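Hi P.,

Sorry for the delay on this. The queue was packed all week, but I finally got your sequence through. Input first:
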Amino acid sequence: MGLLSHIQEEAYDKVSSEFSFFDFISNSPFPRCIILKKDNTAYCAGFSYNLDADSIFRSVSTEDFWNGLVQENDKWLIFNKKNSISDLYQFFSKEIKDLISEIYIYKDSATGNIFLLIYSENEERINIQNNNEFIENLKKCLEYNPKISNQKKTSLSFESFIYHFDFKNAINKEINAQCPDGNLKLLSKTIFNEIFFKAYRLFPKPHIITVDTSLLTLKFEIFAKERIPLVLVQNQFETALENLINREFLQDIKAE
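Then the structure:
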């Protein structure tokens, strides 16, 4: 990561934060996951982690399908090559599908939302059966909607520099190209959430990220001894997004 990594190490300081989906995922050994949110009689990705845009678009599915597959709520169900995992392949891109060994599914009876935890063959599993604390944190994730960054200002002996990124055109073009009949509002929010998480990892505390989910914009407040050239910040960020947004649409991200 070069210069950005050096600045992150220089400026590191403990900052208190509230619980969020991003903290939950960061502190759990999840290789990849997706939360499906109910939209009338259909489901669509509400949050995702380490999935590409193609898999997010493929998440659009019917309530009848999930009612048939997941017949018990508030309980973990495990799908693998021995029991119907092939029924779930349709929701993932070829790249992700080739990795899949097991999928853990939990359906929340209160909201109808569905959590999918996706593992490949040799990835570490976590003990989630009868883990009440894990379930409570999971339910918080299902309820969480980011409005602004959960990072709080702290006292640092560095200057702060502001960068603005607007993703609306890039996200809308990606959706219109791959899923023109999908729920534009929900899908754009899901992709934006994934962008936010990647930004959250790229610019950790104490750097501050302010989110506008309606305009699909992020404002970065980066602490450093000198201003980082915008083109460097933009290139680092676009590299992090290559597996999420088609390269041809990355040029539609507005940065200043």
